[in-house]
Amino acid sequence: MLFFETSAKTSYNIEEVFATSAKEISKKIENGFYDLTTDTCGIKQGMNSNTSGSLKLDEKDKKNRKKNCC
Q1: Residue/partner pairs of 43-48 with CB below 8 Å, 24 or more apart
Q2: Total domains present in the chain
Q3: Which residue, 7, 18, 42, 49, has fewest beta-carbon neighbours within 10 Å?
Q4: Which of 55, 68, 57 is CA-nearest to residue 21?
Q5: What is the pLDDT of residue 45?
Q6: pLDDT at res. 63
Q7: Stated pTM of the model
Q8: Would you say 34 and 28 are in contact if contact means Cβ atoms under 8 Å apart?
């Protein structure tokens, strides 16, 4: 379990919480801690996810994200 001191009022550490949590989940998926072939782990792959369980974006995905942002 991760612990962060945060503040919604000043946005202190808010981005770090989400970034660190996503990195930890990604590491666990890559190390086989979560079995994404079943629904028991509580993690569902998105429609554009590859079947290997990797959360790394390819160049096409990165360009599409930048194009669709804000």
Answers
A1: none
A2: 1
A3: 42
A4: 55
A5: 75
A6: 60
A7: 0.55
A8: yes
How confident is the model over 22-41, as pLDDT tens digits?
999 889 989 988 888 887 87
Give 54 or 59, the one with higher predicted confidence.
59
Q: How far apart are the first and last CA of the chain?
A: 32
Backbone angles phi and psi of 12, in degrees to 5: -65, 120
CA-nearest of 10, 11, 52, 48 to 31 is 52
Task: Check whether 2 has a pLDDT greater than 80.
Answer: yes
Amino acid letter, 15: E
Q: For residue 61, what are the contacts with CB-CB under 8 A and spacing of at least 6? A: 48
Tokens of 21: 């949590």
Residue 38 belongs to domain spanning: 1-46+55-70
